[in-house]
Write a structure and sequence with these properties.
Oligomer: single chain
Largest sheet: 12 strands, mixed
Mean pLDDT: 91
Radius of gyration: 18 Å
Helix content: 25-40%
Shape: globular
């Protein structure tokens, strides 16, 4: 899928080298089709890295996608230059007079804070409420999934005794689920989090359905029964070295964090890890775009409600 992005976005060069079909505004203007409009609310501190990871996965099917990168208005980013954000991101206040076929709300390194203690929680709640009626399908990732489940359904998060980090195998909980079409019977999902969900809390909510879980990582994929909200506790978008970089960063700070499980060969941090979740990641995002966005969203975007 050609993804329409700003021609100067740094991710463009990286993706083109990987043969990901990237389309600039000039070329998109010559095509007489309605692109899927996807907003990415990027809460991660490493904005450029996360953009590239998500755009790589969104650019793998044969339709045109128009990307809007969104920043939380009123929140000052400590890791991304304001000039960069002003150039490539729209403030959250600008989305409220628009509609989107899909939206992705990313994770954020604020897991151990109470939701209400996060400085941009009020604005994020406003975005999530807006998405209910103005976005056809919203994908919540990692902390974003905990935030969405808590805000919309009152599902609580629980602190883990230590960080959950590594690659964990998952099993589907339902048969015939389009989001998991083509998946192997067991499939890997990278996890990097300090909190978890309790299965029984989700099962109490009739509007939610558990799609996948892991013996080690717990519930990993949940959806609303109307397919308008997808919640994934892990990071299928992660690159091969992302968990390693997080581990090195934390240990360099003197933090006591566990070695990522099922990741470094023979658990040797000096050996290069390999990705074995990339195919699952591409399939997951392709299925989401195809079954829950493209095939279901109204032809006229203004009819989303």
């Amino acid at each position: 899928m050609p993804i329409k992005i700003n021609s100067d976005l740094p991710a463009r060069t990286i993706l083109e080298k990987e043969n990901i079909f990237v389309m600039t505004e000039k070329r998109a203007a010559t095509q007489d089709i309605r692109p899927l409009k996807i907003a990415i609310v990027n809460l991660m501190p490493t904005k450029e890295v996360t953009e590239t990871q998500l755009l790589r996965l969104l650019g793998n099917t044969p339709l045109q996608i128009e990307i809007s990168l969104v920043r939380i208005e009123g929140h000052e980013s400590k890791n991304t230059d304001k000039i960069y954000l002003d150039k490539f991101y729209i403030p959250s206040s600008e989305i409220y007079n628009k509609k989107f076929d899909g939206m992705i709300i990313t994770g954020a390194p604020v897991e151990l804070l109470a939701f209400e203690s996060v400085d941009y929680w009020e604005e994020l709640c406003k975005i999530m409420d807006y998405a209910k009626k103005n976005v056809f399908s919203t994908l919540y990732v990692c902390w974003g999934s905990f935030a969405g489940l808590y805000h919309h359904y009152g599902v609580k998060k629980y602190a883990l005794p230590q960080k959950l980090s590594g690659i964990f195998m998952n099993e589907r909980c339902v048969e015939g689920e389009p989001l998991l079409r083509g998946f192997d019977d067991t499939f890997p999902i990278p996890q990097s989090r300090h909190t978890t969900l309790h299965k029984e809390d989700i099962e109490k909510c009739r509007d939610l359905q558990i799609l996948a879980e892991s013996a080690e990582a717990g519930v990993t994929i949940v959806k609303s029964r109307d397919n308008r909200e997808i919640f994934m506790t892990g990071h299928l978008e992660y690159d091969t070295m992302t968990l390693a970089q997080e581990y090195y960063r934390d240990t360099d700070k003197g933090m006591k964090v566990p070695l990522p499980k099922n990741y470094f060969p023979t658990n040797n941090v000096n050996r290069m890890p390999t990705s074995y979740w990339r195919a699952t990641a591409h399939l997951f995002y392709t299925n989401w775009l195809n079954y829950y966005v493209y095939q279901a969203t109204p032809f006229s975007i203004e009819d989303i409600k």
